[in-house]
Specification:
It is a single chain. By secondary structure, the protein is α/β, with parallel strands linked by helices. It folds into three domains: 227 residues, 3-Layer(aba) Sandwich (Rossmann fold), CATH 3.40.50.150; 63 residues; 72 residues. The strands form two sheets. It has a seven-stranded mixed beta sheet, sandwiched between helices. It has a two-stranded antiparallel ribbon with strand order 8-9. Strand 4, helix 5 and strand 5 form a beta-alpha-beta unit. Helix 6 crosses helix 8. The relative contact order is 0.13.
Length: 389
């Protein structure tokens, strides 16, 4: 065990909690992790944010800030070959699992460098800058989340991107009340709290809103004890609505670069006809606020931030023809993909399959020698084909 600077008031309590319940509770296995998550693939993220993959990003420095039991670190290594990866966490118990996970998966063999260290994300001033920082479900467990965001902003390269996952108020209405109830019952944050928490859901009447919500939405996710404890027993938690989220982002001088689940924030998911037409006339921020009001089941925000403002590029036909391409690394099915980057079924024509296969085999070939602008644009819009500078 190494000494840990108590830079955040909640650090010792939270560290002890995760020593008891290493999170997330995903099982260990030999070999690469199952499936993928495009949000942990730097090339996919660059294309989603910028419209293309900028040059000079072949070997990024990546920080997994609050890596827990290493699920995200494992994917970050396997989806970013040649990268320099640092995973940090405040819990010895979680890191022990993370190290075993990455050792069994062969993660270190995929990257130039992999370090997994017991450190706070608040104390990384000696690490220089990172091209990509991933911090999922971490800042909302700090006593001062603003200090955590400023610390990560300080470590972000000028052209770097930060991926965050933070709790949303509305979708955690039932969770917050369950947490408060267990606190009033003095259940604690250890094994007794775990026992009493599970007993609570078995005891409440079947039609009770809290019990029904847990049973229908979270019971499967909370089957591992660590996941149940993280949801209902955590000693320190903050959540946000959109207004407070954007105010939070501004405290670090960072810029919103897009949701990493944009389909959730599309009014067309909820509306149609005249209502949708009215919604689509609103500025993006107000469209998102509308979705927030209409869908109280949204339980988290996941999004990208940048040090400087960014806008996704629009490309002319000539630019598309002159560009080089990359087959989206996060597709399922070889040699012909059958699932897209969000694990959704995709339909491809024979010509599309042939193009993606050729791009994979001839990565330096300009796209104009392989396909028409319309075919290229369709695959780019669907994030099946990524553009490279």
């Amino acid at each position: 065990m190494t000494d840990l600077k108590p830079s955040d008031a909640a650090t010792p309590v939270v560290s002890a909690f995760y020593d008891r319940f290493p999170f997330p509770g995903d099982p260990l296995q030999d070999g690469p992790p199952p499936g993928y998550n495009w949000r942990w693939c730097h090339r996919s993220v660059l294309a989603a944010v910028h419209g293309r993959i900028p040059a000079g990003m072949e070997q990024p420095r990546i920080l997994d800030a609050g890596c827990g039991t290493g699920v995200s670190t494992d994917y970050l290594c396997h989806l970013n070959p040649g990268a320099d990866v640092l995973g940090v966490d405040i819990s010895d118990g979680a890191l022990a699992v993370a190290r075993e996970r990455c050792q069994r998966s062969g993660a270190a063999e995929r990257v130039t460098s992999l370090r997994q260290e017991r450190r706070s994300l608040l104390d990384l001033s000696d690490e220089g800058s990172f091209d990509y920082i991933n911090s999922v479900g971490v800042l909302h467990h700090l006593d001062q989340p603003e200090a955590g965001l400023r610390s990560l902003a300080d470590r972000l390269a000028p052209s770097g991107l930060l991926h965050l996952f933070l709790y949303a108020d509305a979708g955690r209405w039932e969770i917050h009340r369950t947490q408060k109830a267990l606190s009033l019952l003095n259940a604690g944050t250890g094994s007794e709290g775990l026992r009493l928490g599970r007993e609570l859901f078995e005891t409440l009447p079947e039609g009770n809103r809290l019990a029904r919500h847990h049973r229908e939405r979270w019971a499967v996710d909370c089957a591992p004890d660590a996941n149940f404890a993280d949801m209902y027993l955590h000693p320190q938690e903050t959540s946000y609505n959109l207004e407070r989220l954007f105010a939070f982002i501004e405290t670090a001088g960072l810029h919103f670069a897009g949701f990493s689940n944009p389909e959730v924030w599309d009014p067309a998911r909820l509306l149609m006809g005249e209502l949708l037409e009215r919604a689509q006339t609103l500025p993006p921020r107000q469209q998102w606020e509308l979705v927030e009001q209409l869908d109280p089941d949204i339980s988290h925000f996941e999004f990208f931030l940048s040090a400087a403002p960014v806008e996704s590029e629009a490309f002319s036909d000539d630019e598309l023809l002159q560009a080089r391409g990359l087959r989206q690394p996060c597709l399922w099915g070889e040699p012909d993909p059958i699932l897209g980057r969000n694990m959704e079924p995709i339909q491809l024509s024979d010509a599309d399959r042939a193009l993606l296969r050729t791009v994979a085999e001839q990565p330096e070939q300009t796209l104009g020698a392989l396909a028409s602008p319309n075919q290229i644009r369709d695959l780019v819009d669907r994030q099946l084909l990524l553009l490279k500078e």
